[in-house]
Amino acid sequence: KHEWEKHGTCAATLPVLNSQKKYFGKALELYQHVDLNSCLLKAGIKPSSSYYRMTAIKEALTRFYGVTPKIQCLPPEKGEEAQTIGQIEFCFTKELQLRNCTALKSESNLTLADLKLGTEELSVCNDTLPTYYPSQVQ
């Protein structure tokens, strides 16, 4: 209900997404189409206790999909040195074609700062920190 009311009703201006069934059906279709795990596995990046370079993750995704995704991380916990991937977001045009996820000027004030995963805030990943790609984020 929340996802439909928050995002779906906005997307419903497009005929291809103008009902709950179409909206969620298309979301599942796009989720299967953008298979992040397969893409990253082909680049030798898999969920594990190993750390990766954020630039390697970004390069693999950009090379495979031809667009730049938005990757957000949980910052290192106290005493830790590695950040943890919390979310990888791909953006689409109104025609549902992949496009670069570049922040609009109106978003430069971090309007997504309200986004939380658990009790910690997600933020733009730091390219210089080791990055943990977990099998799941709790």
Automatic annotation (TrEMBL):
Entries under Pfam families matching the protein: Ribonuclease_T2
Any Gene Ontology biological process: RNA catabolic process
Annotated Gene Ontology cellular component terms: extracellular region
Coiled-coil region: none
Domain of life per record: Eukaryota
GO molecular function: ribonuclease T2 activity; RNA binding
Family membership: Belongs to the RNase T2 family.
Designated name of the protein: RNT2B Ribonuclease
Protein species of origin: Steatornis caripensis (Oilbird)
